[in-house]
Amino acid sequence: MKAEKKKHLSPEKRKMKQKKKSAEHPKPQMAPEEDEPVLKKHKLNVREEEEEEELSPGEERILERKLKKEWKKTQKRLMREATPGAEKDQPKKPSGSELALDYLTTWSGSPQDWKFQKTRQTWLLLHMYDKDQVPDQYFSILLRYLEGLQGRARDTTVQKAEDLMKEYDQSDMEGDLLEGKRARIRKVLQLLS
């Protein structure tokens, strides 16, 4: 008779029952050396419980996926704990400015190893007026690079340089930083116009 009652339980009641059982029987903690066997044992126990409750195949798959996901999370956590200094040992990734300046020096120093990269060119075009981002030693190389600029990138660079020059001419600000930017903008306009 009990089996008959379980067949007629609504899905909500089944879930409530499952939650009660999981609260009564907490999931086992897995140690690194026990990995897979514990998961299989746990699955077998869950399957036995499921057979008692007569879960549908869909519910069984969902439950197995949840168990697998929990197992993977546990494994990742255990791996992180086992290697505490692994993240610190990895080399620091170069910044955008370092990558762009390396790109520029490769273009000028060894053109056979150079390969066009739009993201590096875009970064250079956005930051070429800033002395902190593109130091003077690189700006002269950048000017030679800009000579070969073609198409829309060339037109856009000229347009932005003209707009910036108008903006700086109209502003009342004075200073070495502003004068340095103005000088760079003039050089770019002379080169590209």
General description of the model:
The chain is mainly alpha-helical and 193 residues long. It contains 10 helices and no strands. The protein has helices spanning 2-7, 11-24, 35-53, 57-82, 86-89, 96-109, 118-127, 136-147, 151-170, 176-192. The chain is elongated, with a radius of gyration of 33 Å. Mean pLDDT is 79; it is low at 1-6.
Number of strands: 0
- Any idea what the shape is? elongated
- Strand-pairing-aware structural class: mainly alpha
Percentage of residues in strands: under 5%
Helical residues, percent: over 70%
How many helical elements? Answer: 10
Biggest β-sheet strands, sense, barrel: none
H and E string: HHHHHHHHHH
**C-alpha-based Rg, rounded:** 33 Å
Query: Span between N and C termini?
Result: 92 Å
Q: Which consecutive residue ranges, at least 5 long each, have pLDDT under 50? A: 1-6
Biased composition (Basic and acidic residues): 1-13, 58-67
Protein name: Chromosome 7 open reading frame 50
Biased composition (Acidic residues): 48-57
Organism: Naja naja (Indian cobra)
